[in-house]
Specification:
alpha/beta; Rossmann fold; 6-stranded parallel β-sheet; 10 helices; 14% strand; globular
Amino acid sequence: MAHQLLKGKKGIIFGALDERSIAWKTAIRAVEEGAEIVLTNAPIALRMGKINELSALCNNAPVIPADATSVTDLENLLQKSMEHFGGKMDFILHSIGMSPNVRKAIPYTDTNYDNFLKTLDISALSLHKVLQSAMKLDALKEWSSVVALTYIAAQRTFPGYNDMAEAKALMESIARSFGYHYGFAKKVRVNTISQSPTITTAGSGVSGFDAFFTYADKMSPLGNATAEQCADYCLTMFSDYTKMVTMQNLFHDGGFSNTGVSQSIIEEMEKAAQANG
């Protein structure tokens, strides 16, 4: 049920690739809640994905290509978005992440450093570039909200997550640091949402994903948060109900981040021990 939570608000959604994307679901829910949006992704992702289908589902929202590692592209995106909206914006979703090392199955201990730098640029520095460009162009209204999606591998080691772990840790730091400056300058709030492992095109590419998706689900008192639930959480962060929340890394993971071990995991370990005994 829609409540018009974002009525009159305008914003940009980065990173929608297909219907499994959290950004895709957030875009649809934002429009249902009364927002007007612009959709964007890297040109190659626009060719590979289904973003024109999403545009049609979102009242024919404009699709503006932008490489999030290019300040020129980002400034063009922001300027065209403001022209479309007839003024400044209220929210931005940064749902961007890619690691060439992960895609090429290069082990963490054998990392290719050129690839590593690309991972950091695409997955972390892109947030800084978005925020810097928005501040330079004065593209966001006071009390606007910027949300970036992250994962608990920024704090804990998940071997298959590879160099994306460093990228997410850097991105969370950027959100805190830029949130400080943007908050004092324009009352813009900047937060990250640390989501449960989620079955998306990007998430499924991580080595061992199915195993730690199941593990997290068994560890979390509420189970894994779905992409749809994450979209709803993003909407609350875009809304006026969270005006005083900034510089936070917000865990949206069914309690996984604060659970040491669950009874379900203990019982499975006991069964395994008995079977091997």
